[in-house]
Design a protein that fits this description.
The complex is a heterodimer. Chain A contains 16 helices and 14 strands. By secondary structure, chain A is of the alpha/beta class. In chain A, the strands form four sheets. Chain A has a six-stranded mixed β-sheet with strand order 3-4-14-9-10-13, sandwiched between helices. A four-stranded parallel β-sheet of chain A has the order 7-6-5-8, sandwiched between helices. In chain A, helix 2 packs across helix 4. In chain B, strand 4, helix 7 and strand 5 form a beta-alpha-beta unit. Classes of the chains: A alpha/beta, B alpha/beta. The complex binds pyridoxal-5'-phosphate.
Amino acid sequence: MALRAQSGPYFGDFGGRFVPESLVAALDELGEAYDLAKLDPAFGEELAELGRSYTGRPSIITEVPRFARHAGGARVILKREDLNHTGSHKINNVLGQALLTKRIGKTRVIAETGAGQHGVATATAAALFGLECTIYMGEVDTERQALNVARMRLLGAEVVPVTTGSRTLKDAINEAMRDWVTNVATTNYIFGTVAGPHPFPEMVRDFQKVIGEEARQQVIDLTGALPTAVTACVGGGSNAIGIFHAFLDDAEVALYGFEAGGEGVDTERHAATITKGRPGVLHGARSYLLQDEDGQTIESHSISAGLDYPGVGPEHAWLAAIGRATYRPVTDAAAMQALRLLTRTEGIIPAIESAHALAGTLELGTELGPGATILVSLSGRGDKDMDTAAKYFDLYDQEHPK
Amino acid sequence: MRTVGPVIRRRNDEAAGALVGYLPVGFPTLDESVEAAIALVEHGVDVLELGLPYSDPVMDGPVIQAATQQALANGFRLTHGFEAVRRITERTDAPVLIMTYWNPVLQYGVDRFADDLAAAGGAGLITPDLIPDEAADWIAASERTGLDRVFLAAPTSTDARIRQAVDSSRGFVYAVSTMGITGARSDVDEAARTLVARLAEAGAPASCVGLGISTAAQVAEVLEYADGAIVGSALVKALADGGVEAAGELAGELARGTRPSEVR
Ligand SMILES: Cc1ncc(COP(=O)(O)O)c(C=O)c1O
């Protein structure tokens, strides 16, 4: 079977639905609505039109030769999801799920967010479609992504800082699930990545695979050939699966996912789930996960809120297990250097999440050497990260209030 | 082996039904959680449900979250769960169920977990985030060891899923009284009554209602139609605020609900 044809609930040994019974009816409803929508040309057309006239699809590709000089002479081509309305790939998925919300007749949406990009995208779609909207965000993340908190509130969403556990993305998901179990009659959960219980991994992938479908043709048009490798950062894994998916059955194209290595994978402060985790169940799916001997989730760490997650989507766990994709860690420091390098050489400020893909690409380029072409998912722009970057690179004037 | 079915039947014969009491292991300390569980039984709780603290308790409200987070911060280990079961069953006759999220069992090893729970004298497992569809390993392990298996049924469950919960459970089916998570509520949902009727129609030997029950009057109301009433957050709050003695006292008060003539 073609790898592209793989659908949920299981990807090899991974995936499934490890959820309270109270959520099963809602997951079934969503899954059935999605299966019907897939067969309905009107749904696909409405989503594509929103892509064109609202998001700005297709997003362009940009070759970055000055940056590529630091990548061993490989050609580097960026898929510019940072240019989407709201600033990242997250909007692709949100518009699809918001249309489904309308189809199943629910009036309120909830979402978790780490970097705030998924929250902003969800708040945006809620404003566009007139839905009530609540966003759960770990308290640590509301502080480091304060700009996005303000954006969500301006868009009319309620932002709830989550103060339990590690106060980051995983705890925001727990809180969103609790809300959903309680308010499932009126509320749809717009999940932000390719993790979680079925149908989310499959559905979110399908809404994101447009990234790779566009990019595959764009790269062929530009270079006359498929790329040597495709790279992306991996938090839950939605931008990565989005750009990988079109290439899954192109055996000659290598796929690399870059996980957050934090302060180093030999320390306890990282979020390199596939590199350092073991199979287990978290947030409704069986996948790789950072956990202790007793199966308690270990808190992750990353300078990037969007990658600061101890789990990963089941389709990535499967692609790693069958050897179709390779996952490597990238440290905070390497990501920040790559962020500055792209900014200085090309005038493009990436999100810190996406900077992990850039840093991994620099290393990969030196391995592949001249003649290689690397397609990189530039999943988002760095506006939201200016405070982190300003502190990291000491860019504020002395008297700037910290 | 001490299972829950006979106790629930006996309590429905001699009283209005069974009182099931929940406490997390290791809160506020391992010793106090054991003493509190024993106090619950001494004051009229018929079946114990011991929660294993877990890092990501999606079915739990603020009271139980706070208690289990504290237990984890104090160094809770899975082996403490078996130790608590052993110590409690040595000193009481009540059957003890473990309530646990699925990943700890998976990491410990499903068969090894079942063996160690049975060896400790435990009655079985309540699995809030494991639906029968994903439970083949646990169903096999509990068949082999004779442990009870309590799956959940919700007001939104379809008839087919209700039948599946009934067919897959042994001991009782946990009827989720209202849509939501754990936490005391002022009125227990009418939905519970309908759900229990649907479970009975599907052939459930016993149904216990949980989520939101906090007073003797609510226990009495639930036992009008269900075989057992499950109380969690209210007991945990009593333990947090007033220690073992307060938890025992509340259990005694709740147990009046199993003798409805006393509550009216
Ligand atoms: C720009 C950007 N890239 C990547 C991610 C990580 O998510 P995923 O792995 O699902 O693409 C995020 C998450 O917030 C993000 O904002």
